[in-house]
Amino acid sequence: MKQKILIVEDLFVEANHLRIILTRAGYQVTGIARTFEEARELVRTNQPDIALLDIMLAGKKNGIELAKCLNQQHIPFIFLSANSSEDILREAKATRPSGFIVKPFREKDLLISLEIAEYLHQNSNDAQLRKEAVFLQDLKTLAENGGEWTAQLLGIVKAFQRLIPFDYVSAGFFGKNFLPFKGMHFLRIGFDEYQAMDAEGLRMVTNVRAAELANMMAALPPISQVEYYNAEKFRKMSAEIPLKKLIAGKFDMRSNLVMPIANISIDGKQFFFCFYSRRPDAFGEQDLELCARLQPAIESAIRKMIRAASTSGPDMELDHAIEVMAGSRSESPVFDSMVGQSHLMLNILDLISQVAPSDTSVLITGESGTGKEHVADTIHQLSPRKSKPFVKVNCAALPINLIESELFGHEKGAFTGATERRIGRFEQADGGTIFLDEIGDMPLEVQVKLLRVLQQREIERVGGTQPIKINIRVITATNRNLERAIAEGKFRLDIYYRLNVFPIAMPALRERTEDIAPLVHHFIGYFGRKTGKNISGISDRALAMLMDYGWPGNIRELENVIERSVLLAKGNSIDTVYLPAHPAVEGIAKAGPPVLKNIFENERDHIISVLKACEGRISGENGAAKILAIPPTTLSSKMKKLGIKKSIGF
Ligand SMILES: Nc1ncnc2c1ncn2[C@@H]1O[C@H](COP(=O)(O)OP(=O)(O)OP(=O)(O)O)[C@@H](O)[C@H]1O
């Protein structure tokens, strides 16, 4: 049965055009609203399944205001918009629409967007319900097990992490005389690791006087309802509340969600959770609803916790004001191979742990070498499919004439040369996960077949006559801008939406420089073991050079640099690092776009840097040819071809 659609559009001609398209496609148009108020009324009376929303409406309130109401009622919506300012678009995006169509649009795109919105809505609802069920179960277990106050608070905080994206949280009663139920602050320092601070700990870390901090605590305004503050709103709010200003400044926080727990207070001070994030737009309307839904369960769990802590003795003080409270990372040993604790990386780990248990398709985007394949592999390892195959296909590397047979297989005699039946990659991945790397390079003809796999989970071998059912999870990756490829007609919008159910955008290494040092140590350990060299560390000077570099090739480039440096290290520490002799050495502007080199420039830079490291020696034990793993004669001819003269002085 086709869905009921509400059109919210103030221009009659456009609204009517939409109505005609939708009715022709078999949808039921339940009404056309020109203003926020009319739309609210039609939502109430007609209960549409989905709404098409123009951002600009007649009257005072716009489509973004309406989107917030629709979110409260779990009605999915698609924005229709002509050119809007960046601020408006950012605001619209924060309401998490199920689609976004820019006017003028093609009829085909509108219909696909509607179909996908329905699919996404169903999928995200299911995923959210699963996460909430896990949270409620965790809460119940915590409350039943009882125990020491700080440990119980940490338990709740950790359970929250799956639902609310935060980097810092204050939890409990704040003010004087709340022992044993004192408020605590938890700074996230690892995937499942928190630095716990009581008031004294926070005072030490922030370096303020005790009296000053006490005044800040006392000046916290009373809070009666759940509220969130993103970006500018957060900046303004925290400028007026000294404690928030202190936390924002010290820990670089940019948004905040405050959740008071109703009916739990001591001396008029309410119990609350105050979540902070380093992302400026981390919180939204959906968090308000989530908090409202969870309130009763949290209230009941905290009552039990208070009761348990009151009977478990007065010794509620932390041994230390600051304590690192590690979670059981063993829950996810697979994450051990994911090095990096920056908030950007922790966010990626959260996304991985959220999506891994389901069969949801994932699209991983990011520059080359940022770890897309590593993430895909980790998702598979953490999924119930982990004992089944993980099949990787690089769509860019497959010859165009073989790609179909490679992916879908072929029957004997399907074409000249097909002497045997061949099982394709999709079938090989049956029961497991297929990882389609460089999906943006998949030819359009093959994309049509992929759509069938995504829609019906079935394939047909080349030359075959019977569809074959397969049970696979699809993870894709690209370092291309797929939106641009769609606009150029090179990538299908319907496939994009199906693959993009759960997007993961990998940050470039230059955006998370705090991860460079841990990665360096990780790779030193790895290559030290591999080469049998006993390298224990890296000099400050060499590390500073690595921190200063722009890393256009991201983690892969760093890995290569460390491999080379380990090989060439003279003692048991790395004192010299061999960075490309390209302008990159002088420093790609850290936040700027990477300098893209062609393959010959890359090869030339690489050879020059190895020659430099070998002080110009080509052959022999310490020569460049040995390190490059090619014969000295090949190296000499490559040098000639690439114009590398020994006279340039190594
Ligand atoms: N978080 C991490 N911790 C440790 N090693 C990592 C991490 N991320 C990536 N790597 C390593 O960096 C290298 C490059 O990663 P990967 O191949 O996953 O990147 P990619 O984005 O898929 O690259 P491309 O776009 O070129 O295919 C790999 O050797 C991988 O093991």
UniProtKB/TrEMBL annotation:
GO biological processes: phosphorelay signal transduction system; regulation of DNA-templated transcription
Keyword line: Activator, ATP-binding, DNA-binding, Nucleotide-binding, Phosphoprotein, Transcription, Transcription regulation
Keyword Oxidoreductase: no
Record bears the keyword NAD: no
Sigma-54 factor interaction domain mapped to chain residues: 338-567
Molecular function via GO: ATP binding; DNA binding
SMART domains according to UniProt: AAA, REC
PTM sites of type 4-aspartylphosphate: 54
Stretches assigned to the Response regulatory domain: 4-118
Gene3D superfamilies linked: 1.10.8.60, 3.40.50.2300, Homeodomain-like, P-loop containing nucleotide triphosphate hydrolases
Record-given protein name: Sigma54 specific transcriptional regulator, Fis family
Organism: Dyadobacter fermentans (strain ATCC 700827 / DSM 18053 / CIP 107007 / KCTC 52180 / NS114)
Record lineage: Bacteria, Pseudomonadati, Bacteroidota, Cytophagia, Cytophagales
